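A common beginner's mistake is to predict each chain separately and then try to dock the pieces by hand. The better habit, illustrated here, is to supply every component at once so that their relative placement is modeled jointly.
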Amino acid sequence: METLPFNFAIENYPLAPLTLYGVGGPARLALLPRNLDEARAAYEWMARQPERHVVLGGGSNVLIADEGFDGIVFVTTALDGIEDLGGDRYHVLAGVILDRLVREVMLTHNYNMVGGLTGIPGTVGGAIYMNAGTVNGSTCMLMESVDVACPEGFRVIPMDESLYSYRGQSFCSRGCLILGGTFRFSPTEKDQQAIYDHYIQRRKEKQPQGRCCGSVFKNPPGDHSGRLIEACGLKGTRKGGAQISPLHANFIMNEDGATCADILWLIDLCKRTVFERFGVALEEEVVHIH
Ligand SMILES: Cc1cc2nc3c(=O)[nH]c(=O)nc-3n(C[C@H](O)[C@H](O)[C@H](O)COP(=O)(O)OP(=O)(O)OC[C@H]3O[C@@H](n4cnc5c(N)ncnc54)[C@H](O)[C@@H]3O)c2cc1C
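With all components supplied together, the output reads:
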């Protein structure tokens, strides 16, 4: 590209440091808008380009190809802002760290369903896109509306149960951008701080700490991917610098300079072995950017 379109556009931008896995090559072009106006302008420009583009939030659920991404990566992490609208409603920008929303807003006011969002890394935008959550609830359940930019324009979409599912949603297809959204919380009598502390402690005990993406696979209906992988005897299997965690089989760790190819090799091994043994087709929760 001869002239860069914005002063917050950078060519050949390393992506590995933007992700929790810490693997992968650079983006041909990264857009790093610092506020909503820049984000809107950058998105409109990006949507007109013939190249492929992808959005990156906190990088806690992505696996970047070793070759990087030969297109445009739109990074949301500087889109920061929580506005109290009154009546337990808050407008939150996509780049706000989810745990900040939980601690500063939900815990401060003892709002219900803290257990659904406790301990999930990444941004609010990523949590909305993934409908991130736990058995205790998920992000989209707490929302009134979501602000989405698509090639056709900007829209405020009223949230509805029919628009989201387990780790998925239908209001923002890949290539569109969630700019933020309005949350509507409910105060409760139950001590949410105690619930937060409980789940943080539980994660420390039950989940491996280190470079990873959390659960690699979604849970198949009525079962747990971790249980199936463990039953195949794959816990602890290594490939290069990557390892299926000996603590939790649905976690594949970057132990020691893993490449994306190492991690993909283990993902493929899990899928093949679980299918051969149990006839269950595991589906990735982690998003492979390539
Ligand atoms: C230790 C650990 C524990 C975890 N535990 C959980 C858990 O309990 N429950 C759970 O659901 N997840 C869990 N995760 C996965 C991950 O944290 C969530 O999916 C998180 O919501 C992703 O947010 P992010 O900002 O990091 O998104 P990213 O990883 O940056 O992106 C994930 C996907 O969302 C898209 N995206 C991100 N932001 C936007 C945006 N603004 N607009 C449009 N698309 C966007 C990306 O294109 C990509 O497809 C865990 C991860 C780790 C590392």
